[in-house]
Fold this sequence. Notes:
Elements: H1 4-12, H2 15-31, H3 75-87, H4 89-109, E1 115-126, E2 140-154, H5 159-225, H6 231-245, H7 248-265, H8 297-303, H9 305-326, E3 331-342, E4 354-363, H10 371-437, H11 443-477, H12 487-491
Antiparallel strand pairs: 1-2, 2-3, 3-4
Helix pairs in contact: 3-5, 4-5, 5-6, 5-7, 5-9, 5-11, 6-11, 9-10, 10-11
Amino acid sequence: MTTRQDRLFSTHSDPFTLARYGVLFFAILVSSSCTVGPDYVAPTIDAADQWSTSANAVNPDAPPLSEWWTLFNDPTLENYINQAVAHNRTLSIAKTNILRAHALRRQAGSLVFPTIDGSLSHSRQGTSGTTSDTFSAGSRRTLYNAGIETTWELDIFGGLRRQTSASDARLESAIANKDTVLLGIVTEVGRTYFDVLGLQKRIEIVEKNIALQATTFRLIEDLFNAGEATEFDLSRARAQEQLTRSRLPDLRAEMKASVFRLSVLLGHPPEYLVNNFSPEQSLPLPLPPEVVSTGIRSDVLRRRPDIRLAERDLAAATEEIGVQVAELFPRFFLTGEIGRASSSSSNLADQLSNTFSFGQLMQWPVFNGGRLRAQIDVEKADAAIAADFYEQTVLNALSEVESSLTRYIEKRATRDKLQRAFVNQQRAAELARVLFNSGETDFLAVLDAERALIDVEDSLAISEIDVRLDLVTLYAALGGGWQPYSFTDAKD
Length: 492
């Protein structure tokens, strides 16, 4: 007796039917070059090549910025940045996100290939009081099946290709995000390190002036005991020393907080670097380079990872439109199955137990209440948002460089003026003390000169710190501080 299963197999073994399948398959492959949806075109950057800010400190021919911290010739700074790159947890998250995006890219790329599944089953069938076309009432039947099934979606309208391109862009976006995070961490390590050294220097200045004012107070106290100075002079000398001492607690607290922050940036507990920095003995501030390599605007905009991140997000959003547009069109699948079926497991090896089936499947959304077109509108809105965000990122980058250049140049000028003011005020304080010792002026002139000297010296120290902080910020704005990515980096 011929079963329905037998009829199905015998029908598909007809050579004319197989020929028709071959023609259909060839036609599908020929038409598979169609890709619906908008093609992504990278936006052009329309910006002048020259920066509006210029000065002798800016030199387009200076050394490159990929490792700007080496320009300070400070081994400690280089060591800390290397530690941060190796151990910072935020950067580790960004690297892991790259591996995740790479896995999603492989997943999307696999959709264009056929899926093949193996199966092995054993079933027991039977009837009680009714009959069927297959076997008589009350009988029992055992069936063993072993086979391979395959399904292949033919990407006729390019939805899968669009999805793969979007995954490519997402992967590149993850890499650019890692570069952005790396640039931010390196920048923060540099700024925090210079902040710690600057606070050390300010503490040292205050302690030096406390010692000087303590000596002055003892001198006035001796003169007061000898009847050559008034109680008013003694009180003012004591008040000046106490006022200077009052600056220490805040400076020490700020320094310790900066050390804690630097330790965490390096991927360690807050107390990790506490013993490396002593408030009583400051380390010298490394000298900044005399020139800065700015490059031209177009080079900087291509180098900045946040701009590449925004551009790749825009590319992915554009490809996602095509993914959704393809959902409006039919989807075609080729299906097939080969295997063996038998009522006995020992007969599965018999050639007579062979079975096969080949077919085609088309799916086409006929009515979905406008859901697909609404989703297309959502993707178009997301792409428009990504385009605006990209343009705003470019504008922000230009503004950051121009502002950083201006601040750095002006802070250098301020520092130079304060250096001259400090030299002059130091001389004024020395003369005031000489005149007081010779009896040609009162002690008020000495106090005023020393107070002014403390203020100028502290302002100079702050200015020295600001010059270095603004230089690090300028390096970051110019896009310096990151290296090309490799997947080995993410696995380390």
